[in-house]
Amino acid sequence: MDVNMGQRAGMRAPLLGLVLLLPLLLFKPPPCCGQNTQGGLQDGPHFGFTQAVYHAMVYENSAARTYTMSKVKMGIHLAQRSWDVRYRITSGDDEGFFKAEEYLLGDFCFLRMRTKGGNAAILNREIQDNYVLTVKASVKGEPLLETWTKVSIQVMDMNDLRPLFSPTTYSVTIAESTPLRTSIAQVTATDADIGSNGEFYYFFKDKMELFAVHPTSGVVSLSGKLNIDEQNRYDLEILAVDRGMKLYGNNGVSSTAKLFVHVERVNEHAPVMNVVTHSPSWLDKNPVHAMVTVEDLDEGLNGEVDSVVIVGGDPLEQFFIERFVEGEFAIKASESVNWETYPYGCNLTLQAKDKGVPQKFSAVKVVHIMVKKRQTVEATFEKELYDVSLSQISPPGTTVEAVKIKPEPDDAEYILTPSADSAFFQMNTLTGVISTTHWFTQLTQDVFNLEVMEIDSELKVKVRVNIEDANDNIPTFDLSSYEVLVNESVLVGTNVLTVSAVDVDKGENGYITYSISSLQPLPFKINQFSGIISTTKELDFESSSESYVIVVRASDWGSPYRRESEVNVTIHLENVNDNRPLFEKVACQGVISRDFPVGDVITTMSAIDIDELELVKYKILSGNEWGYFDLNADSGVLSLQHSLDAASPKNGLFNLKITATDGENFSDPMFVNISVSHGKSPPKSFNCRETRVAQKLAEKLLKKSKASMKPKIEEGFIDLFSVNRQTPQFDKAFPTDIAVREDLMIGSSVFKVNAYDGDTGFNGQILFSISDGNTDNCFNIDMETGLISVFLPMDREKRDRYLLNLTIYDLGLPQKTAWRLLTVYIEDANDNAPQFLQEGGYTIVIPENTAIGTDVIQVEATDKDLGPNGEIVYSVLSSTTQFGINSTNGIVYVAGQLDREFVPVFNLKIEARDKAEKGSQKFSATTLKVILEDVNDCPPLFIPNVYKARALEDLPVGTVVAWLDTQDPDLGLGGQVRYSLANDYNEWFEVDRTSGAIRLTKELDYETRQFYNLTVKAKDKGRPVSLLSVTSVEVEVVDVNENLYAPYFSHFALTVSVKENARIGTTLLQVTAEDEDTGRDGEIQYSIRDGSGLGRFAIDEETGVIYTTDMLDRETKDSYWLTVYASDHGVVPQFATIEVFVQVEDVNDNAPLTSEPVYRPSVPENSPRDVSVIQIQAQDPDATPSAAADRLNYRIVSGNPQNFFTINTRTGE
């Protein structure tokens, strides 16, 4: 039964309510979710709203008696159908806009809110958009039954206002060079409506190609290229259209805004400086201290750089700026700059300005200017003082020391400050090596003080050369010879002479000892320290030499040999008469006859005096008293002086005692016994005993003679060892040349010079020297051993051979020398890396379509080394497949496909490596910058490949629906792209040739066409051939919500009844809603979304027919509520609801049920008739409790064959 039916059957509704209320009176009703605020007894029937707060809505400007809409049922479930519920607004409606009404259906009393009629005021959302009403419910006649709820009514917006611009006039100035798609302004309009009602579109009143306005944001952007020469001002008129009005068919425009666009050649960008500083040397001519690059992003004169000036840091104006090329400037200094006054450089402040109007100035930039000054502070000598020791016997050309400054510049040059001491030395100005120029053996100076100066830096250092004594002086006697007369009779140990020598050498080299150089024993000795000569034994003039020539040797204590000198000391013996004469014969016996003639010689006496100072005299001491005999005193002849006739010697024998004297000394007497015989005269015969004096004298004389021969023998011997006879000689195996590797380390041995000298001592000691040819001081020779070693590094590339003059000296006096030439060939070592001929790298420009295999450049390097060390192999170190290099000649060629757009510049690193077979190979690298010159080989590339745009169907004409964007990496005209449409769907769209903006030229209609597939072309302006690309733009038309009207039911609620035994699928009723929209917005779809009947009932979504989907059971549930929705198919669907009450009608489908399944009563036997045994109780779910007793009949169906029992058919007793 529908609402109207319910109203017509108003009289029957209370009765039906009583019938439905009876089961509730027997059972306690279930609790409800609403708020129970009743004031009655707590155990009474429940009375309360289903919710404490309800939400409803109503449109502003609604007419009188317009009901609000709510998604839920507002009201109270009736615990008793007899309740007469009344609703009343108690608060929240001060203006009296609303009224609360009751509507009873089934077991529910609906609360319906509506606007009052006859009220002049209408709802206005813009004033108040929400009302919270307090509604009281009460039961008529039951003062204790009342409850309250709140109803929040949302006032929904209606599109009753239009957008308004604020402000209405805009003005903007833009630069002529403004890029496409740049936002230049934004217009603003407001609409007080909300939601879609507050939405509006911006668009130009007239067609405009150079500008575009965003339809919703109002941002105006540039869509074409400006040209101030053609037009410098644009007056744009912008309109705003309310979308709601358009939907409702009203195209009235709310307001208009004007936008004035002024175009100027604006000097927009200030110049930007980039500075690269240099550090030139103070020796450079016209040095550049910094390069300034200036960029200005403006075009035309605005982008041209006028100048770069020094605005600070140069009060003396010592610097100036010189223009190199456009945009590049060099900072230079005048020749008057004294860099000594700028030890830490100076800071110049620069500023650039362009030629624009007005001029723009760059930000100031501080540049630190430095120059590589003379190394006055940083460079120092390696030592503060060079203290060198040098042997005194060092030959000329001996290396003394190498002085260096550190760090040492390549052009360092050293000199010796002229002085008296520097005359003995020379300086290699390039190597800093000091060497000797003179012998030092004849000098007494011990220390030489030199000063070395490096010319460029003017640094000075002291060099002290200490001359080490080398025992180069021989002891020198104070006399060239000594001579002395010594009495032969002096006592043993008598000092006869003192010799003295001096040695100017130092230390032990000058300490002298004396010795007597003699191979024969001498009667003298010498004190080795004092030089006193004394006798060691008695001297004898007669038995030794009359004089002694003694060689006295003075020796120093030097090493490795002692220096010696000799002097002749002549000692003359003074003869003293210290020997008695000695007879040669003694004890002579002889016989003479008595008639021996007088005067005849009897015998001769012979005495010898060794002294030989005086003649010996003879004398008869006794036995010649009678004078018979005569003894010649001088000759010693004994003769007969008187005849013997008368002689009568005693015992017939004359015994003569004879002596000899030298005048001082007398010999021992000798006796001569002479017998006189009678008779015939016997022959004269004498026998004497030989004393061998003559022999002894002869021996002495011989000895003396030998003594006189000794000095000659010893002279020859001494001469053999003291005279420098031999000249030093080079070894016979001495080569004419040797080879040395140039990378030998300093100190390494090169060659040992062997030489010999047949002399001994210092005469045979050899000194080695490089007297000439050691141009770069690369070699040094050990003065004593002759070992040639590396003194300074060699460089074959500078000098590949040295012709050394090797001179050897002995230390004899006079000194002897010899020399030989030795050619030293410097063998190459791999000490030089290959060097590219072009410093700073290579740069070339080639077309990007250069064919594979084309030679593009030759990089060439040289290596100063020889052989494999100097052979070069080229390779490309950079990882690239586009370029290769000929490893032999360095020709770089194209090895792969080039594409400037993919890689515009290749920075290749090229290596030149030698082919050294020993040691490590050396290499150097350079850079090759290959710049690819553009060729129009790339068609414009759309980004993305396919465009997809969505356009609301109500967009105004002129709206940009898509921006085409392409990338053409070609340069110049080849990169300038123009756009066109291949199909525009009967001029529905157009594209800006320059910016690629696709605009609407006609209004869209979703219902007519939902999709457009535009074919667009992008073509560059390359020459001679332009390239083309094609893509598609998929424009999807988006349906705008034109669903203006919501569906509506003609009834607020419906009621229907159905038998509980109705089959599944039984139709209950058909609901029908209406929608004033057309098309799919007016197509309605039905659904059941709420209610207690969910799952029991269903509705056909197209027809609205409600049918059962499950079996019903009145005894389980006797009624159902269904909330039926009617929704349209709009973009934003709208809906309406209707409540359907389903009453389930009873069918006798249940058997009565006893209270117990089995009864076990008992009765005594012999009980009388009509005794009550038990009362059977039963119920029938089909019947109501009050009618159950009247509708049940009881009877016994079995077990009573004798009929002992009977049952009351009505009561069951």
TrEMBL record:
<feature type="domain" description="Cadherin">
    <location>
        <begin position="732"/>
        <end position="836"/>
    </location>
</feature>
<keyword id="KW-0106">Calcium</keyword>
<feature type="domain" description="Cadherin">
    <location>
        <begin position="838"/>
        <end position="942"/>
    </location>
</feature>
<dbReference type="InterPro" id="IPR015919">
    <property type="entry name" value="Cadherin-like_sf"/>
</dbReference>
<dbReference type="InterPro" id="IPR002126">
    <property type="entry name" value="Cadherin-like_dom"/>
</dbReference>
<feature type="domain" description="Cadherin">
    <location>
        <begin position="1050"/>
        <end position="1154"/>
    </location>
</feature>
<keyword id="KW-0732">Signal</keyword>
<keyword id="KW-1015">Disulfide bond</keyword>
<keyword id="KW-0325">Glycoprotein</keyword>
<keyword id="KW-0130">Cell adhesion</keyword>
<feature type="domain" description="Cadherin">
    <location>
        <begin position="592"/>
        <end position="686"/>
    </location>
</feature>
<dbReference type="GO" id="GO:0005886">
    <property type="term" value="C:plasma membrane"/>
</dbReference>
<feature type="domain" description="Cadherin">
    <location>
        <begin position="50"/>
        <end position="165"/>
    </location>
</feature>
<feature type="domain" description="Cadherin">
    <location>
        <begin position="943"/>
        <end position="1049"/>
    </location>
</feature>
<dbReference type="GO" id="GO:0005509">
    <property type="term" value="F:calcium ion binding"/>
</dbReference>
<keyword id="KW-0812">Transmembrane</keyword>
<keyword id="KW-0677">Repeat</keyword>
<dbReference type="GO" id="GO:0007156">
    <property type="term" value="P:homophilic cell adhesion via plasma membrane adhesion molecules"/>
</dbReference>
<feature type="domain" description="Cadherin">
    <location>
        <begin position="382"/>
        <end position="477"/>
    </location>
</feature>
<feature type="signal peptide">
    <location>
        <begin position="1"/>
        <end position="34"/>
    </location>
</feature>
<feature type="domain" description="Cadherin">
    <location>
        <begin position="478"/>
        <end position="583"/>
    </location>
</feature>
<keyword id="KW-0472">Membrane</keyword>
<keyword id="KW-0245">EGF-like domain</keyword>
<dbReference type="GO" id="GO:0009653">
    <property type="term" value="P:anatomical structure morphogenesis"/>
</dbReference>
<keyword id="KW-1133">Transmembrane helix</keyword>
<feature type="domain" description="Cadherin">
    <location>
        <begin position="166"/>
        <end position="273"/>
    </location>
</feature>
<dbReference type="Pfam" id="PF00028">
    <property type="entry name" value="Cadherin"/>
</dbReference>
<feature type="domain" description="Cadherin">
    <location>
        <begin position="1155"/>
        <end position="1212"/>
    </location>
</feature>
<protein>
    <recommendedName>
        <fullName>Cadherin domain-containing protein</fullName>
    </recommendedName>
</protein>
<dbReference type="InterPro" id="IPR020894">
    <property type="entry name" value="Cadherin_CS"/>
</dbReference>
